[in-house]
TrEMBL record:
Gene3D superfamilies according to UniProt: 3.60.21.10
The family this protein is said to belong to: Belongs to the YmdB-like family.
Record's keyword annotation contains Hydrolase: yes
Annotated positions binding Fe cation 1: D8, E40, N41, H177
Protein name listed in UniProt: Metallophosphoesterase
Keywords from the UniProt entry: Hydrolase, Iron, Metal-binding
Residues at the active site: H69
GO molecular function: 2',3'-cyclic-nucleotide 3'-phosphodiesterase activity; metal ion binding
Protein's organism: Thermovirga lienii (strain ATCC BAA-1197 / DSM 17291 / Cas60314)
Annotated positions binding Fe cation 2: E40, N68, H150, H175
Length: 260
């Protein structure tokens, strides 16, 4: 089976870019049997709304993952509880809104487990993502297991990849909005990349207009961030998995420039 994973979607520019180019992408690299995207920045660059979530699902995504920004819009928390196709990191403490993993069916009828985890290095101190990952997959009977590891440190991400090598189909890093060039199949059959990257405007700073970001760095005072609308690039990976073994056979990194 062939899995499409789209890197962090940032605001309206990222959503429009996806909507206008998904079919063309599928004609070149697909057809895709299962489609996932990280959507924690899809609404105005920070968080998610029900309207934006439904817009993304209408594009054919089976599952949306997220990260630390999923909490940014407080009126969205109830949606986290009711929408099973939307995930937040699983290693938040008990009692937190939403669910951190879910079972889905691909277009071919393959049972897919998607696990969303968040790192702890240079991030808020939450529960251990390594132990949580082990706990979730221990009793899973899914043919294919996909892990979105939303983390800052490259070392923590690679450690997670090696920790889960042979236990899951792929470990795909998100959060930094900077695509890395280390896509690989690990020794025991797990597809890995440190960061899938970002879908949206790359002319600013990780999806935001440069003016507000520069002001904060130069003056050290709060400034308003606006979503960058220029330098449109779609970042994603396509992973091929043998559903009889759950092992990945290929990972292809996508860096599609639509506007320089």
């Amino acid at each position: 089976m062939k899995i499409l994973f789209v890197g962090d979607i940032v605001g309206r520019p990222g959503r429009v870019l996806l909507r206008e180019n998904l079919k063309q992408l599928e004609s070149r690299f697909g057809p895709f049997d299962f489609r996932i995207a990280n959507a924690e920045n899809a609404a105005g660059g920070f968080g998610l709304t029900e309207k934006v979530m439904n817009e993304l699902f209408s594009m054919g995504f089976h599952c949306l993952t997220s990260g630390n920004h999923i909490w940014d819009k407080k009126d969205f928390l109830e949606v986290l509880d009711s929408e099973r196709r939307l995930l937040r990191p699983a290693n938040y403490p008990p009692g937190v809104h939403g669910q951190g993993y879910g079972f889905f069916l691909s277009d071919k009828g393959t049972r897919v487990l998607v696990v969303n985890l968040q790192g702890r290095v240079f991030m808020p101190p939450i529960d251990c993502p390594f132990r949580k990952a082990e706990e979730i997959i221990r009793d899973s009977n899914a043919e294919v297991v996909v892990v979105d590891f939303h983390a800052e440190a490259t070392s923590e991400k690679k450690a997670m990849g090696l920790f889960l090598d042979g236990k899951v189909s792929c470990v795909l890093g998100t959060h930094t909005h900077v695509q890395t060039a280390d896509e690989q199949i690990l020794p025991n059959g797990t597809a890995y990349i440190t960061d899938v990257g970002m879908t949206g405007g790359h002319a600013g700073v990780i999806g935001m207009e440069k003016s507000g970001v520069m002001e904060r760095f130069l003056k050290g005072t709060p400034s308003k961030f606006e979503v960058c609308k220029e330098g449109l690039i779609l970042n994603a990976v396509v992973v091929e998995v043998d559903e009889t073994t759950g092992k990945a056979t290929n990972i292809l990194r996508i860096y599609e420039v639509y506007e320089k």
